[in-house]
Design brief:
Strand order of the largest sheet: 1-2
Structural class: mainly alpha
Number of helices: 11
Radius of gyration: 23 Å
Largest sheet: 2 strands, parallel
Distance between the termini: 57 Å
Number of strands: 2
Order of helices and strands: HHHEHHHEHHHHH
Oligomer: single chain
Strand content: under 5%
């Protein structure tokens, strides 16, 4: 394959005429999806290579919550280990992969929504770009909160270990636990953003959000209770309360957008 053809795979773009409402041919949709997926993979590979270079600093950051919990627990109750000849290699690869996913989150979140943009009107595209720009920072804020609560969660969970029995934590298992916790926190903070984006796409109305508000509140706390790794209410509230604030903000934005649409439609009928 020529260099120009290889570069063309990353460019995407429609090869057929785009309709006034943003409709594209099916082949153009597939071409656009392939290009955005390849861009995400390329950015991920670059971030992965950089993360491997700084792997020792990353390990200190990942191991920090466990060490904080270990200091507050009785001596000898827990110990970190690895098992298997390839355990060390897999540890570094998983660590670099997780770091690359987190660091590139603003980029791949943008690519996801940019794939949907051709189906929106020009005014909606301008507004959704603003919210997509917010999604990346919110993801990182959620990750930071998850990291902040992790020592408490580990202290509570390891504290259930019976007296006289040492809790051996395989570091690869710990890394999966660490990754899952932080990703859940990060993605949960983006749920209200996607609600707003669905409203701008015309899928969800503000009055529908208001009608289901009590169930959304209950569901948010149930989700937070199930998603947080520890059993203490502090970790649950640290996830649920910001999610509720973001949801109420998304409901207000959705209602304002619905009113704007109604005014625009009324003006066109006159």
């Amino acid at each position: 394959m020529r260099l120009g053809g290889l570069v063309g795979l990353f460019r995407g773009g429609p090869r057929h005429d785009v309709g006034p409402d943003g409709r594209m041919a099916l082949s153009d949709h597939f071409r656009e999806f392939r290009a955005r997926l390849l861009r995400c993979l390329l950015v991920f590979v670059v971030a992965f290579a950089i993360a491997l270079y700084f792997r020792h600093y990353l390990l200190d950051g990942v191991f920090g919550p466990y060490e904080d919990a270990q200091e507050k627990l009785p001596n000898g109750i827990t110990e970190a280990t690895t098992s298997g000849a390839a355990a060390g290699l897999m540890l570094w690869l998983k660590l670099a992969g997780f770091a690359a996913i987190v660091v590139t989150a603003p980029y791949w979140l943008y690519q996801i929504w940019a794939f949907v943009l051709p189906g929106l009107y020009s005014q909606e595209r301008k507004m959704t770009r603003i919210f997509v720009a917010v999604a990346g920072p919110l993801f990182l804020v959620g990750v930071a909160l998850g990291y902040f609560t992790l020592p408490v969660a580990l202290e509570v969970l390891i504290g259930f270990n019976p007296d006289g029995v040492t809790n051996l934590i395989d570091f690869n298992d710990y890394l999966q636990f660490f990754t899952r916790t932080l990703l859940v926190f990060g993605l949960s903070f983006n749920i209200p953003v996607f609600v707003v984006l669905l409203n701008f796409a015309g899928v969800v109305k503000g009055r529908q959000l208001a009608a289901y508000r009590p169930w959304i509140v209950i569901g948010t706390f149930i989700f937070a209770a199930a998603a947080t790794p520890s059993t203490d209410p502090f970790s649950m509230c640290l996830m649920a309360v910001p999610m509720m604030v973001l949801f109420f903000a998304s409901e207000v934005i959705a209602r304002l957008n619905d009113r704007r649409r109604a005014r625009t439609a009324a003006a066109k009928r006159l």
